[in-house]
């Protein structure tokens, strides 16, 4: 039995008032995942902009810190 099937079985056995909490938790997990993905994408997109700042002779002394 897959995890999805086990979850469905458990959800089907829960009282209605608990389902809202389950739904809120699922939405939280989705939001958290999206937030982490956006942060990683933003970081990658900004790397090329910062590359000129990070790689220069003046600041080379800081590379060893």
Molecular structure report:
The protein has helices spanning 3-13, 16-54. It has 65 residues and is mainly alpha-helical. It has one domain (3-64). The chain starts with a helix and ends in an 11-residue tail after the last helix. The mean pLDDT is 89.
Number of domains: 1
Poorly predicted spans: none
Strand content: under 5%
Mean pLDDT: 89
Shape call: rod-shaped
> What is the makeup of the main sheet?
none
How far apart lie the N and C ends?
Answer: 52 Å
Number of strands: 0
Following the backbone from N to C, one meets helices and strands in this order, namely HH
Based on secondary structure, the structural category is mainly alpha
Oligomer: single chain
The gyration radius over C-alpha positions equals 23 Å
Q: How many DSSP H or I helices?
A: 2
What percent of the residues sit in helical stretches (DSSP H or I)?
over 70%
SSE blueprint:
Blueprint: H1 3-13, H2 16-54
What's the gist of this structure?
This protein is mostly helical and 65 residues long.
């Amino acid at each position: 039995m897959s995890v999805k099937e086990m979850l469905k079985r458990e959800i089907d056995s829960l009282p209605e008032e608990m389902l809202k909490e389950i739904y809120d938790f699922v939405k939280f997990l989705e939001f958290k995942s999206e937030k982490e993905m956006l942060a990683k994408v933003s970081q990658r997109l900004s790397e090329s902009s910062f590359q000129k700042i990070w790689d220069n002779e003046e600041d080379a002394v800081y590379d060893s810190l």
